[in-house]
Amino acid sequence: MEKSGMTLMERARRGDGEGALKEAAERESLSPEVLLAGVAAGTAVVPANPAHRGLVPCGIGQGLRTKVNANIGTSEGHAAVDLERRKLVAAVESGADAVMDLSTGGDLPALRAELLRLSPLPLGTVPLYEAAQVARSRHDAVVRMTVEDLFEVIERQAAEGVDFMTVHTGLTRRALSHLMEQGRVADVVSRGGSILVAWMLQHDRENPLAEHFDRLLSIARTHEVTLSLGDGLRPGAGADATDRAQVAELLELGAQVRRCREAGVQVMVEGPGHVPLGQIGTNVQLQKRLCEGAPFYVLGPLVTDVAPGYDHIVGAIGGAVAAAAGADFLCYVTPSEHLDFPDVEDVRAGVTASRIAAHVGDVEKGLAGAAEWDLEMSRARKALDWERQERAALDPSAVRARRAFLKDGEGCAMCGPLCAMKIVSRALAAHAASGSEG
User: Fold this and answer.
1) Is residue 406 located within the same domain as residue 393?
2) pTM (2 d.p.)
3) Whole domain around residue 282: which residue ranges?
4) What are the C-alpha distances in Å from 38 to residues 214, 230, 267?
5) 368-390: string of b/e by CB count within 10 Å (b at 16+)?
6) In CATH, what number is assigned to the domain containing residue 244?
7) Would the pLDDT of 282 be above 50?
8) Which residues pair with 45 in a beta bridge?
9) Is residue 92 within a helix (H) or strand (E), and if so which, with residue range?
10) Residues 35 and 104 in one domain
């Protein structure tokens, strides 16, 4: 821990903006005081575990650029470490702001150590996944996981250098009762949520993450881990959005946000999920109100259920609306969502789609520099300046690739000699010249 055992949030409250806070502010082109105030109030976070060497810190939250997370990680049938390395590289190259290791197969500690070694981005995990793997190994069943199994994993991952952790603390017995009473089309689609539901029903006990919340806070405080309070009851079908179970969990999370802040622990809140377009703004506003402005981290959201293979587009539509409404952190969705194990190209497609959504949201929020970026591209297009357009592009490599075989250096293959920019520019120039001659 930096500086006499104080957490980053506590140092921010004392006006100390050095270290990770200063670095994150510089990357955002903000004065350190602005970010410091956000972290002090809990409306922004800077996930930065001191044990993560080589980390380039970034800020997430109110008044900051909307950030994008890329999920990578193994499964039981796909546990190649080299593939995850390449996916990490693809996420970094594509402009992701953070990465989550959601691995469930293979040697999880070894893979996590490799990702922490290689990643300049904040690295997040869901400790429950490794705890479930441990329970299967030790006790032959996920539902036989003990509280010690779970907290042993949480503490180990924190000590290793994980910057933020998804912990499904709001899925309490009370929230679960709403799900069981109301019913759903898709029940529970969160992997962590499903594990906890099965465990709670098997043992007739409270969620251990909620029951032992103070222990969780102690670990997070000791190792400077940002908690990402997960949405274990997020809707997995549009028909289930904004139901009693989802809102009941959010109420629990709001109370837990306050406990995190009282403990000096940085916290953000995760959100849905599958949400019809017209409900996204309401969901964001509800979270911001109930969770007192805590940074909001959304999966997508996915605005329709009928486009498997194109869910990166579906998620980008929802992400743009969510970001415009005030969401701070978009978790990407890849074309493989609901279908297959993502590959390197899926990672690139998912990050790019979510970056577009984040930028659209930033323009709508009036974030400094966002609209100016669009204006720069528009001016470059009018000037038919292709090098300038490439520099202004969100993905310069896409511009290079599509311009590579075009012989006419001025126009594009779509219009050729009938380029609207050329025609009007020449007509206006000729008109101006004739007017001056007269």
Assistant:
1) yes
2) 0.94
3) 8-365
4) 24, 21, 12
5) eebeeeeeeeeebeeebebeebb
6) 3.20.20.540
7) yes
8) 60
9) helix 81-93
10) yes
